Amino acid sequence: MNRRSFIEKGFLASLGFVLTSPFTGRKEDSLSAAALKVNHPDTSLWSDNSLSLSWIGHSTVLMNFYGKWILTDPVFYGRVGIYALGFTWGPSRYSAPALSIEELPKIDMILLSHAHMDHMDWESLKTIAEKQPGQIDVVTSYHSKDVIQELPWKSLKELDWGESHEIDSTKVRACEVKHFGWRFPWEKDRSRGFFKDGRSYNAYLIERSGKKILFGGDTANTNKLEVLKNEGVDVAIMPIGAYRPWKFNHCNPEEALIMAERMNARYFIPIHCNTFQQGMEPRDEPLRWLNESIKNYSLKLGLNEIGQSFRI
Fold first, then answer.
1. Dist CA 282 CA 8 (whole Å)
2. Coil, helix or strand for 20?
3. Pairing between strand 60-65 and 211-215?
4. For position 20, what pLDDT does the model report?
Protein backbone atom coordinates (compact mmCIF):
# COMPACT_ATOMS: atom_id res chain seq x y z
CA MET A 1 0.00 0.00 0.00
CA ASN A 2 1.46 3.38 -0.91
CA ARG A 3 1.57 6.37 1.43
CA ARG A 4 -1.39 8.11 -0.18
CA SER A 5 -3.71 5.10 0.16
CA PHE A 6 -2.50 4.48 3.69
CA ILE A 7 -3.29 8.04 4.77
CA GLU A 8 -6.65 8.09 2.97
CA LYS A 9 -7.84 4.88 4.62
CA GLY A 10 -6.48 5.67 8.03
CA PHE A 11 -7.21 9.38 8.20
CA LEU A 12 -10.51 9.33 10.08
CA ALA A 13 -9.81 6.12 11.95
CA SER A 14 -6.52 7.48 13.25
CA LEU A 15 -8.15 10.63 14.60
CA GLY A 16 -9.47 8.76 17.61
CA PHE A 17 -6.04 7.31 18.25
CA VAL A 18 -4.17 10.61 18.16
CA LEU A 19 -6.63 12.15 20.61
CA THR A 20 -5.05 10.06 23.36
CA SER A 21 -1.50 9.66 22.06
CA PRO A 22 1.72 11.70 22.19
CA PHE A 23 1.19 12.26 18.45
CA THR A 24 -0.70 15.43 19.37
CA GLY A 25 0.23 18.62 21.11
CA ARG A 26 0.46 22.36 20.87
CA LYS A 27 2.74 24.04 18.35
CA GLU A 28 5.00 25.29 21.12
CA ASP A 29 5.47 21.83 22.66
CA SER A 30 9.05 20.97 23.54
CA LEU A 31 11.01 18.66 21.30
CA SER A 32 11.42 14.95 21.86
CA ALA A 33 13.73 13.88 24.66
CA ALA A 34 15.83 12.27 21.93
CA ALA A 35 16.13 15.54 20.02
CA LEU A 36 19.21 15.92 17.88
CA LYS A 37 21.63 18.76 18.38
CA VAL A 38 21.89 21.04 15.36
CA ASN A 39 24.31 23.66 14.10
CA HIS A 40 23.50 27.36 14.16
CA PRO A 41 24.45 29.24 10.98
CA ASP A 42 25.82 32.78 11.25
CA THR A 43 24.07 34.48 8.34
CA SER A 44 25.85 37.77 9.07
CA LEU A 45 28.89 36.21 7.40
CA TRP A 46 27.03 35.49 4.15
CA SER A 47 27.97 37.73 1.24
CA ASP A 48 25.56 39.29 -1.24
CA ASN A 49 28.15 38.49 -3.92
CA SER A 50 27.83 34.71 -3.78
CA LEU A 51 25.40 31.88 -3.08
CA SER A 52 25.24 30.84 0.56
CA LEU A 53 22.70 28.47 2.05
CA SER A 54 21.90 26.43 5.13
CA TRP A 55 19.63 23.47 5.79
CA ILE A 56 17.30 24.71 8.55
CA GLY A 57 15.52 21.36 8.98
CA HIS A 58 13.13 19.06 7.10
CA SER A 59 12.69 20.71 3.66
CA THR A 60 13.41 24.23 4.87
CA VAL A 61 16.47 25.82 3.29
CA LEU A 62 17.54 29.42 3.77
CA MET A 63 19.69 30.95 1.06
CA ASN A 64 21.29 34.25 0.22
CA PHE A 65 21.31 34.00 -3.55
CA TYR A 66 23.48 36.93 -4.60
CA GLY A 67 21.60 39.33 -2.36
CA LYS A 68 18.19 37.66 -2.65
CA TRP A 69 17.06 35.96 0.56
CA ILE A 70 14.98 32.88 -0.28
CA LEU A 71 13.28 30.37 2.02
CA THR A 72 11.91 26.98 0.92
CA ASP A 73 8.96 25.11 2.50
CA PRO A 74 9.18 26.90 5.88
CA VAL A 75 8.45 24.67 8.89
CA PHE A 76 9.63 26.07 12.21
CA TYR A 77 7.33 24.83 14.97
CA GLY A 78 7.37 21.70 17.10
CA ARG A 79 4.64 19.85 15.23
CA VAL A 80 3.01 19.72 11.81
CA GLY A 81 -0.53 18.63 11.04
CA ILE A 82 -4.13 19.67 11.54
CA TYR A 83 -4.80 22.46 14.03
CA ALA A 84 -8.07 21.92 15.90
CA LEU A 85 -9.41 22.30 19.43
CA GLY A 86 -6.30 24.21 20.44
CA PHE A 87 -3.97 21.40 19.43
CA THR A 88 -1.91 20.37 16.42
CA TRP A 89 -2.63 16.77 15.40
CA GLY A 90 0.52 15.47 13.81
CA PRO A 91 4.11 14.32 14.30
CA SER A 92 6.51 16.11 16.62
CA ARG A 93 9.93 17.13 15.37
CA TYR A 94 12.95 15.61 17.08
CA SER A 95 15.48 18.21 15.93
CA ALA A 96 15.09 21.94 16.44
CA PRO A 97 15.26 24.27 13.45
CA ALA A 98 18.75 25.69 12.96
CA LEU A 99 17.25 29.17 13.19
CA SER A 100 14.00 30.39 14.70
CA ILE A 101 11.66 32.67 12.79
CA GLU A 102 12.81 35.52 15.02
CA GLU A 103 16.42 34.88 13.96
CA LEU A 104 15.71 34.91 10.23
CA PRO A 105 17.05 37.76 8.13
CA LYS A 106 14.60 39.78 6.06
CA ILE A 107 13.11 37.32 3.56
CA ASP A 108 12.51 38.34 -0.07
CA MET A 109 10.94 35.17 -1.49
CA ILE A 110 9.37 31.92 -0.32
CA LEU A 111 9.10 28.82 -2.52
CA LEU A 112 6.42 26.24 -1.65
CA SER A 113 6.66 22.86 -3.36
CA HIS A 114 3.15 21.60 -2.51
CA ALA A 115 0.32 21.82 0.00
CA HIS A 116 1.26 18.96 2.35
CA MET A 117 1.28 20.18 5.93
CA ASP A 118 4.95 19.37 6.47
CA HIS A 119 5.81 21.64 3.51
CA MET A 120 3.10 24.32 3.62
CA ASP A 121 2.86 24.86 7.37
CA TRP A 122 0.15 27.44 8.05
CA GLU A 123 1.47 28.56 11.45
CA SER A 124 5.02 29.10 10.20
CA LEU A 125 3.86 30.95 7.11
CA LYS A 126 1.44 33.11 9.10
CA THR A 127 4.15 34.15 11.54
CA ILE A 128 6.63 34.96 8.77
CA ALA A 129 4.06 36.91 6.74
CA GLU A 130 2.96 38.95 9.76
CA LYS A 131 6.58 39.66 10.65
CA GLN A 132 7.07 41.20 7.18
CA PRO A 133 3.62 42.23 5.92
CA GLY A 134 3.49 43.07 2.23
CA GLN A 135 7.20 42.38 1.73
CA ILE A 136 7.53 38.74 0.63
CA ASP A 137 6.92 37.27 -2.82
CA VAL A 138 5.63 33.68 -2.73
CA VAL A 139 5.73 31.07 -5.48
CA THR A 140 3.65 27.93 -4.98
CA SER A 141 2.37 24.94 -6.92
CA TYR A 142 -0.69 24.89 -9.18
CA HIS A 143 -4.02 24.97 -7.30
CA SER A 144 -2.50 25.51 -3.87
CA LYS A 145 -2.51 29.27 -3.22
CA ASP A 146 -5.97 29.12 -1.64
CA VAL A 147 -4.40 27.70 1.52
CA ILE A 148 -2.41 30.87 2.24
CA GLN A 149 -3.94 33.61 0.10
CA GLU A 150 -5.39 35.49 3.07
CA LEU A 151 -1.92 36.14 4.51
CA PRO A 152 -0.27 39.55 3.87
CA TRP A 153 2.13 38.68 1.06
CA LYS A 154 3.63 41.12 -1.43
CA SER A 155 2.65 38.70 -4.20
CA LEU A 156 1.43 35.11 -4.48
CA LYS A 157 2.04 33.26 -7.75
CA GLU A 158 1.07 29.72 -8.74
CA LEU A 159 3.30 27.95 -11.25
CA ASP A 160 2.38 24.89 -13.28
CA TRP A 161 4.99 22.47 -14.62
CA GLY A 162 7.20 24.17 -17.20
CA GLU A 163 6.03 27.68 -16.30
CA SER A 164 8.48 30.37 -15.20
CA HIS A 165 8.21 33.55 -13.18
CA GLU A 166 10.82 36.28 -12.71
CA ILE A 167 11.06 38.59 -9.71
CA ASP A 168 13.87 41.14 -9.36
CA SER A 169 16.24 39.26 -11.70
CA THR A 170 15.51 35.91 -10.03
CA LYS A 171 13.94 33.38 -12.38
CA VAL A 172 11.91 30.49 -10.96
CA ARG A 173 10.80 27.59 -13.15
CA ALA A 174 8.41 24.87 -11.95
CA CYS A 175 9.54 21.32 -12.72
CA GLU A 176 7.52 18.11 -12.69
CA VAL A 177 8.26 15.47 -10.07
CA LYS A 178 6.57 12.27 -8.87
CA HIS A 179 4.47 12.84 -5.77
CA PHE A 180 0.91 13.85 -4.86
CA GLY A 181 -0.63 17.14 -3.89
CA TRP A 182 -3.75 16.96 -1.74
CA ARG A 183 -3.80 18.59 1.67
CA PHE A 184 -6.81 16.55 2.79
CA PRO A 185 -7.76 13.13 1.37
CA TRP A 186 -11.04 14.32 -0.16
CA GLU A 187 -9.41 17.01 -2.32
CA LYS A 188 -8.78 16.72 -6.05
CA ASP A 189 -5.19 15.83 -6.80
CA ARG A 190 -3.23 15.89 -10.04
CA SER A 191 -1.72 12.49 -9.32
CA ARG A 192 -5.26 11.03 -9.36
CA GLY A 193 -5.91 12.35 -12.86
CA PHE A 194 -7.37 15.76 -12.00
CA PHE A 195 -4.87 17.54 -14.21
CA LYS A 196 -6.76 20.82 -14.66
CA ASP A 197 -8.27 21.35 -11.22
CA GLY A 198 -6.27 19.12 -8.88
CA ARG A 199 -3.59 20.22 -6.44
CA SER A 200 -0.13 19.87 -7.92
CA TYR A 201 3.46 19.50 -6.65
CA ASN A 202 6.65 21.12 -7.91
CA ALA A 203 10.38 21.13 -7.89
CA TYR A 204 11.90 24.50 -8.76
CA LEU A 205 14.87 25.57 -10.84
CA ILE A 206 16.04 28.90 -9.43
CA GLU A 207 18.40 31.07 -11.47
CA ARG A 208 20.20 34.25 -10.48
CA SER A 209 23.52 35.88 -11.42
CA GLY A 210 24.47 32.95 -13.64
CA LYS A 211 23.99 30.28 -10.94
CA LYS A 212 21.25 27.64 -10.85
CA ILE A 213 19.75 25.70 -7.95
CA LEU A 214 17.29 22.83 -8.16
CA PHE A 215 15.01 22.59 -5.12
CA GLY A 216 13.53 19.10 -5.36
CA GLY A 217 10.65 19.57 -2.91
CA ASP A 218 9.21 16.10 -2.40
CA THR A 219 9.52 13.32 -4.97
CA ALA A 220 9.83 9.62 -5.58
CA ASN A 221 12.38 8.29 -8.04
CA THR A 222 11.60 9.70 -11.49
CA ASN A 223 13.27 10.56 -14.77
CA LYS A 224 11.31 13.83 -15.00
CA LEU A 225 14.27 15.91 -13.84
CA GLU A 226 16.55 14.64 -16.60
CA VAL A 227 15.24 17.51 -18.75
CA LEU A 228 17.63 19.70 -16.71
CA LYS A 229 20.79 17.86 -17.78
CA ASN A 230 21.90 20.69 -20.07
CA GLU A 231 20.83 23.51 -17.75
CA GLY A 232 24.09 23.73 -15.83
CA VAL A 233 22.63 23.01 -12.40
CA ASP A 234 25.11 24.06 -9.73
CA VAL A 235 23.31 22.72 -6.65
CA ALA A 236 20.67 19.99 -6.32
CA ILE A 237 18.69 20.18 -3.07
CA MET A 238 17.04 16.77 -2.87
CA PRO A 239 14.80 14.87 -0.40
CA ILE A 240 16.27 11.64 0.95
CA GLY A 241 13.91 10.43 3.72
CA ALA A 242 10.53 8.77 4.42
CA TYR A 243 11.06 6.16 1.69
CA ARG A 244 10.23 3.10 3.78
CA PRO A 245 7.58 1.99 2.98
CA TRP A 246 6.52 5.06 0.95
CA LYS A 247 8.81 4.38 -2.04
CA PHE A 248 6.13 5.40 -4.55
CA ASN A 249 6.12 8.93 -3.13
CA HIS A 250 9.60 9.45 -1.65
CA CYS A 251 13.01 8.63 -3.07
CA ASN A 252 15.77 7.05 -1.02
CA PRO A 253 19.29 8.54 -0.86
CA GLU A 254 20.60 6.41 -3.73
CA GLU A 255 17.71 7.40 -5.98
CA ALA A 256 18.17 11.06 -5.06
CA LEU A 257 21.83 10.85 -6.02
CA ILE A 258 20.97 9.20 -9.32
CA MET A 259 18.46 11.94 -10.16
CA ALA A 260 20.97 14.66 -9.25
CA GLU A 261 23.70 12.99 -11.29
CA ARG A 262 21.41 12.66 -14.30
CA MET A 263 20.72 16.40 -14.21
CA ASN A 264 24.52 16.94 -14.10
CA ALA A 265 24.42 18.86 -10.84
CA ARG A 266 27.74 19.82 -9.28
CA TYR A 267 26.78 19.76 -5.60
CA PHE A 268 24.24 17.82 -3.54
CA ILE A 269 22.33 19.13 -0.50
CA PRO A 270 20.09 16.67 1.43
CA ILE A 271 16.70 17.59 2.91
CA HIS A 272 13.53 15.82 4.15
CA CYS A 273 15.16 13.78 6.92
CA ASN A 274 16.38 14.08 10.53
CA THR A 275 13.42 16.24 11.57
CA PHE A 276 10.15 14.27 11.72
CA GLN A 277 9.70 10.50 12.00
CA GLN A 278 7.72 10.02 8.78
CA GLY A 279 9.12 6.77 7.46
CA MET A 280 9.92 3.45 9.09
CA GLU A 281 13.63 3.58 8.30
CA PRO A 282 15.96 4.30 11.27
CA ARG A 283 16.40 8.01 11.88
CA ASP A 284 20.08 8.04 11.01
CA GLU A 285 19.82 5.77 7.96
CA PRO A 286 19.21 8.38 5.20
CA LEU A 287 22.33 10.44 5.97
CA ARG A 288 24.47 7.36 6.63
CA TRP A 289 23.39 5.92 3.29
CA LEU A 290 24.04 9.24 1.54
CA ASN A 291 27.50 9.68 3.04
CA GLU A 292 28.50 6.20 1.93
CA SER A 293 26.95 6.23 -1.54
CA ILE A 294 28.02 9.68 -2.72
CA LYS A 295 31.58 8.36 -3.03
CA ASN A 296 30.41 6.54 -6.16
CA TYR A 297 29.17 9.68 -7.92
CA SER A 298 30.75 12.74 -9.50
CA LEU A 299 28.65 14.97 -7.23
CA LYS A 300 30.19 16.75 -4.27
CA LEU A 301 28.36 16.83 -0.95
CA GLY A 302 27.71 20.43 0.07
CA LEU A 303 26.64 19.66 3.65
CA ASN A 304 25.23 16.77 5.64
CA GLU A 305 23.98 18.23 8.92
CA ILE A 306 21.15 20.56 9.83
CA GLY A 307 22.45 24.09 10.31
CA GLN A 308 25.65 23.70 8.34
CA SER A 309 26.39 26.40 5.76
CA PHE A 310 27.45 25.97 2.15
CA ARG A 311 28.83 28.58 -0.24
CA ILE A 312 29.85 28.79 -3.88
1. 24
2. coil
3. unpaired
4. 27
Residue 35 has what pLDDT?
63
pLDDT given for residue 121 in this prediction: 96
208 strand-pairing partners: 211
How far is 287 from 270, CA to CA, in rounded Å?
Answer: 8
Q: Give CA separation, 123 vs 82, 147, 159, 180, 189, in Å.
A: 11, 12, 23, 22, 23
CATH of domain 3-26+37-311: 3.60.15.10
Q: CB 20: neighbour CB atoms within 10 A?
A: 8
pLDDT tens track for 210-267: 999 999 999 999 999 999 999 999 999 999 999 999 888 999 999 999 999 999 999 9
Phi, psi of 93, rounded to the nearest 5 degrees: -80, 150
Residue numbers of the chain with a pLDDT score lower than 70: 1-35
Q: What is the DSSP string of 21-67?
A: STTEE-TTPPPPTTPBP-----GGG--TTSEEEEEEETTEEEEEETT
Instruction: Answer whether 238's CB lies under 8 Å from 260's CB.
Output: yes
Phi-psi map region of 166: left, alpha, beta (phi>0 left; psi -120 to 50 alpha): beta
Instruction: Count how many Cα atoms sit within 13 Å of the Cα of residue 277 in the half-sphere of its side chain.
Output: 14
139 close to 109: Cβ distance less than 8 angstroms: yes
